[in-house]
Amino acid sequence: MGNTEVLRRGDVQLTSAGSGISHSEKAHGSKEVHFLQIWSLPSTSKLQPKYFTRHFSDEEKTDKWARVVAPVGADGVLGVREGEGPAPVQSPLTLYAALLGENKSLNRPFTGRKGYIHVVQTSGYNEGQSKGASIKVASGREELTLREGDGAYISVENDGNSLQVENIGDRVAEILVFDL
Known about the structure:
The protein is mainly β.
């Protein structure tokens, strides 16, 4: 497809391989690269290959949820390469991102039946027990603590539970919530 791009903090790159494309990644320069690569299965097979980029500033995610990926056809989802709003995905996945400050909390209602929460590891590679941000997560009667690099699956009850997230650490926590 001929796409070459340098990604920076806050960038979301979405590639739909569809009927097949060649893909490669490499670090630009000698600095370490730290990013998440997330795969989702499309609802339809053999789609045309597509490529989308979006940027979400720290301000858009500070102490609030930013919808960064959403299904094609959902409200506010544009199918243009460098459009506004969430990146369009061909699966029933909505991804939210937040930068949650110390002693702050957020609520995230679920529209799907299951989910996943992940605390992004921003302090670099650490051997042993994780360091950095720490959050308390509550959904229904369940409650647990997650630290940088941790994640947990979420099963949504029939009563329309939402997820309560509270930063209990001593630094900003970067959090992703997958609504499936």
